[in-house]
Specification:
Blueprint: E1 3-11, E2 17-21, E3 31-34, H1 39-50, E4 56-61, H2 72-78, E5 82-85, H3 92-101, E6 105-109, H4 117-123, E7 131-135, H5 140-150, E8 155-160, H6 165-177, E9 181-184, H7 190-199, E10 203-207, H8 216-219, E11 227-229, H9 234-244, E12 254-258, H10 263-275, E13 279-282, H11 289-298, E14 301-302, E15 317-320, E16 326-329, E17 338-342, E18 347-349, E19 352-354, E20 357-362, E21 365-370, E22 374-377, E23 395-399, E24 405-408, E25 417-421, E26 426-429, E27 431-433, E28 436-441, E29 444-449, E30 453-456, E31 463-466, E32 472-475, E33 484-488, E34 493-495, E35 498-500, E36 503-508, E37 511-516, E38 520-523, E39 553-560, E40 564-567, H12 575-582, E41 651-656, H13 673-690, E42 694-697, H14 713-726, E43 731-738, E44 748-752, H15 759-777, E45 781-786, H16 790-793, E46 799-806, H17 810-817, H18 819-838
Parallel strand pairs: 3-40, 4-5, 4-6, 6-7, 8-9, 8-10, 10-11, 12-13, 12-40, 41-42, 41-43, 43-46, 44-45
Antiparallel strand pairs: 1-2, 1-39, 14-39, 15-18, 15-22, 16-17, 19-20, 20-21, 23-26, 23-30, 24-25, 27-28, 28-29, 31-34, 31-38, 32-33, 35-36, 36-37, 44-46
Helix pairs in contact: 1-10, 2-6, 2-10, 6-9, 6-10, 9-11, 13-18, 15-18
The structure holds zinc ion (ZN).
């Protein structure tokens, strides 16, 4: 990872105000090229980068690219790499790659005219069975329809198939969101019109300008275009698409493909989708201005964020180091009864830490091991996640051997002795090798036995700075319901003592409390050996602006986040273009040489206060929306026409979506789904209880129901399902807000899953809730939909998921904030539940 040095000039007291000057080249990305000798080789190196194994592989003829251009969403849905081969026989390199990936299925993309039957024969020659399937149409348009039928979606992307760049621009986004790409032409082909008539998608996203896809060809047939993303040329269109859907991307990485020549890119689109990264297009020798601007605005310089799955302070695994093994004990003490001895080299999960002891399991027994005799391992995510190199961590240890420990010239007790390191000396661990640590002592570098080294966790010194313009509330507990102690002003710099579910524990003006992490930026590696600035001691007065003469300079070592993966060799994107991205060469385009605004970094320069920032950022009230009139919300009587105790004896589980570390979707006014689903759920609980039902909740405050040692989305969903399946409830109601990249989209959907064993009941419940809810809140009716949401497919009782309204739509976001609206949503759902119990399930 490339380092960029910044200078921070700051004044420090208890409260610190910081301003920075940034000097850096316009672009400074680290680069990784994914390329081979030819397009076949490039596809192979992309496959090697992204897949250790694959259940399905997609095979295309290397010159027949039009057939493959729309395949990204389909390939992404199967997590299948795309390989290229000549059409008459399987390329030997491709054969080797298939052997490595061990797929059970290979899908040939294209008819027997391009991928000859001999390919099928070749695929039968492996020593493991491979099923072969062929997908292909009469032409590229038809092929795209065949592919679309495999990833049905309410939304469809239309791109001109006569050239490739527009489809390519949309490919990664389409892959991430599983939206099919239909190839069309200036004159819409019959097959495309028929497909649209049959499927009636509710949203059409058109890529490219009127020149590429004229509106007339669609509107004449009664189809309306919900979104058109286009520009004057392929690069403007590329930037327009990427910018429009930028919320879909979940990484700082970027993929770059040639905008001139196509075959090197197709395999890369699936990898980009897998990484959840955008795919940008470039010229061969230079970066076109719209793309350059995107890259520059995307570039962040900041200490890399810790992903919630792998907090640095809580490694998930450890390796037993003593040669005689390590005792697993009943309690975290050497006097604890011994359960079993875990042999050297065993990797064990670390479940909990307590005063130098780790809780772990071995041989299905749970107990404690001494932390001193473990090497910490940073486990990476499972195989199907793109694996990213872990940040190098400085590990320190302390010598525990009474008579000191010998430093030897190789990792073995027969190695020559260089020097003896005394007991209690602190050393830096540079490397580890079979029970030996490499370290430096008295300027000699050598190896010491790990057995006599006690590891010291690196001090997790993390500082934060308040970004909320009107300050941030300090609360007694890590929740927006915690009592307010004080308000911490904007730009206050502080040390983070603890982190919990999106809240930081900090000290401010002799108070200790919690602030919402959302309005805090992380600042790392700030040395606090700087003198105090007495003028800023009074926290009520804003410190004087720092002056360069009197204040010390602090160097902050920050990294550019994200790597640019270049698809193809220097024949398609030259080394000059690469140097421009790395910041080693200048672009020749005037637009690229302009002054760009300062890089977005974790340290904010002083900004004028923003009026629209809410005062209580963790439970914000949205800015006034001119279209929204809260007086339109009239409270309805949920019990109108319903007898008393109508639901006596019924048990209903309500599942407020998201919560804790997972905010769910966010709206344009920075409101969060998790804060809307809970009040609706609580209102529903109230009504159901009044109607005599017993109500169970998956959560009743801002947290995840998961008790797993490390939060993941899957653990969260599993916990909800486990609660539903263990409580003998009659119904499971999950409450959510919808969200889409186009902020104009609005309305209410109710989902059920055909995979739920009670799918008939679920559908009946969904239909009842849809009807009563829409008539109560008057949103656009998006209907009942079938989708395999985890909480719907895995619950064993009738289950529905209500997408109340679109938080991404400013008007509906405002409604979702309104308490009358929330009450009415609850009333509508309640009446639907009542309808479910009192009307017969239709037979089909
Ligand atoms: Zn949701």
């Amino acid at each position: 990872m490339k380092k960029v040095i910044f200078t921070l000039i700051a004044s420090f007291t208890l409260v610190v105000s910081a301003s920075i000057s940034v000097y850096a080249s316009p672009l400074a990305y680290p680069i990784e090229r994914l390329s081979g000798q030819d397009r076949v080789g490039t596809a192979l190196s992309i496959s090697e980068k992204g897949w250790t194994s694959a259940d399905t592989v997609i095979l295309c003829e290397y010159a027949d690219f039009p057939d493959s251009i729309a395949s990204t969403p389909f390939a992404a849905s199967l997590n299948a790499p795309i390989l290229l081969t000549q059409g008459t026989a399987l390329d030997s390199r491709v054969r080797d790659e298939i052997k490595r990936l061990q797929p059970s299925k290979v899908i040939l993309l294209g008819g027997t005219g391009v991928l000859k039957p001999t390919i099928e024969e070749d695929l039968g020659k492996f020593d493991f069975p491979i099923t072969v399937e062929r997908i292909g149409g009469q032409n590229r348009y038809e092929t795209s329809i065949h592919l679309a039928q495999r990833v049905p979606n309410d939304t469809v992307i239309l791109a001109n198939g006569d050239d490739f760049p527009d489809a390519l621009s949309a490919a990664s986004f389409a892959g991430i969101k599983q939206i099919p790409i239909i190839l069309t032409s200036k004159k819409t082909p019959e097959s495309v019109l028929n497909y649209l008539k049959e499927t009636q998608p509710s949203q059409l996203i058109v890529i490219g300008g009127e020149n590429a896809i004229p509106s007339e060809g669609l509107t004449n047939h009664g189809f309306s275009i919900e979104t058109r993303l286009g520009g004057q040329n392929r690069y403007e269109t590329n930037a327009a698409v990427i910018s429009f859907v930028k919320d879909s991307y979940e990484t700082d990485d970027l993929f770059l493909a040639s905008g001139i020549t196509f075959p090197d890119a197709v395999a890369g689109t699936v990898l980009a989708a897998k990484y959840k990264a955008p795919l940008l297009l470039s010229e061969k020798e230079d970066i076109p201005a719209p793309v350059y601007t995107y890259m520059r605005e995307h570039m962040k310089v900041e200490p890399p964020r810790q992903s919630p799955e792998t907090p640095a302070t809580q490694p998930k695994q450890g390796k037993i180091t003593p040669s005689g093994g390590l005792n697993l004990r009943e309690s975290p003490s050497s006097s604890g009864a011994k359960i079993v001895t875990i042999p050297q080299g065993t990797t064990v999960p670390l479940l909990e830490e307590q005063e130098g002891w780790y809780k772990t399991t071995y041989d299905s027994q749970t107990g404690w091991v001494a932390a001193d005799y473990l090497t910490l391992i940073n486990s990476s995510d499972s195989d199907n996640q793109p694996v990213k190199p872990a940040e190098p961590k400085k590990l320190e240890g302390m010598i525990t051997a009474d008579n000191g420990l010998n430093l030897r010239n190789n990792p073995s007790s027969t190695g020559d002795k260089l020097v003896t390191i005394p007991k209690n000396a602190t050393i830096q661990i540079l490397a580890e090798q079979s029970g030996w640590y490499q370290t430096t002592y008295e300027s000699k570098t050598g190896w010491i036995s790990a057995e006599y080294v006690s590891l010291i966790s690196p001090p997790a010194k993390k500082n934060g700075i308040i970004t909320a313009a009107n300050g941030l509330n300090l609360r007694t507990s890590p929740s927006s319901t915690g009592e307010k102690i004080s308000t911490v002003p904007v730009d206050t710099l502080f040390e983070i003592n603890e982190e919990q579910n999106g809240w930081y524990k900090i000290s401010f003006e002799s108070h200790t409390g919690w602030v919402s992490a959302e309005y805090v930026d992380i600042v790392e590696n700030i040395k606090d050996d700087t003198p105090e600035d007495s003028t800023a001691k009074n926290p009520d007065t804003k410190p004087n602006p720092p002056s360069k003469d009197t204040l010390p300079e602090i160097t902050i070592d920050l990294s550019v986040n994200g790597t640019v993966y270049i698809l193809g060799g220097s024949g398609v994107i030259s080394s000059t273009a690469q140097s421009i991205i790395e910041g080693k060469a200048s672009s020749k385009y005037k637009e690229n040489l302009r002054e760009f605004p300062a890089l977005p970094s974790e340290i904010k320069s002083e900004e004028p206060p923003q009026e629209e920032e809410p005062n209580n950022p963790e439970d914000p009230t949205p800015p006034a929306n001119t279209d929204y009139d809260p007086s339109q919300e009239v409270l309805v009587d949920p019990f109108a026409g319903i007898p008393e105790y109508a639901l006596a004896g019924k048990v209903i589980m309500i599942d407020p979506g998201h919560g804790g570390p997972d905010p769910g979707a966010s709206g344009p006014s920075k409101t969060h789904e998790k804060n809307n689903t809970l009040p609706i759920a609580l209102a529903l609980k109230d009504i159901l209880t009044q109607a005599g039902a017993e109500v169970l909740m998956t959560r009743e405050d801002d947290r995840s129901p998961s008790t797993a040692p490390v939060y993941t989305e899957l653990e969260d969903l599993k916990a909800r399902v486990a609660l539903a399946n263990s409580c003998n409830a009659d119904l499971f109601i999950s409450i959510h807000n919808d969200s889409f990249t186009n902020s104009e989209v609005s309305g209410t959907s109710v989902y059920y899953s055909s995979a739920n064993p009670k799918n008939g009941e679920s559908l009946h419940l969904a239909s009842n809730v849809r009807t009563s809810l829409i008539s109560t809140i008057n949103t656009k009716d998006r209907g009942v939909k079938q989708l395999g949401f985890y909480v719907l497919s895995n619950t064993k009782i009738p289950a529905i998921l209500v997408e109340t309204a679109f938080i991404s739509n400013p008007y509906e976001e405002a409604r979702l904030q309104n308490s009358t609206f929330r009450q009415n949503v609850a009333a509508g759902i309640f009446q639907g539940i009542y309808g479910y119990f009192t009307t017969p399930i239709p037979k089909d």
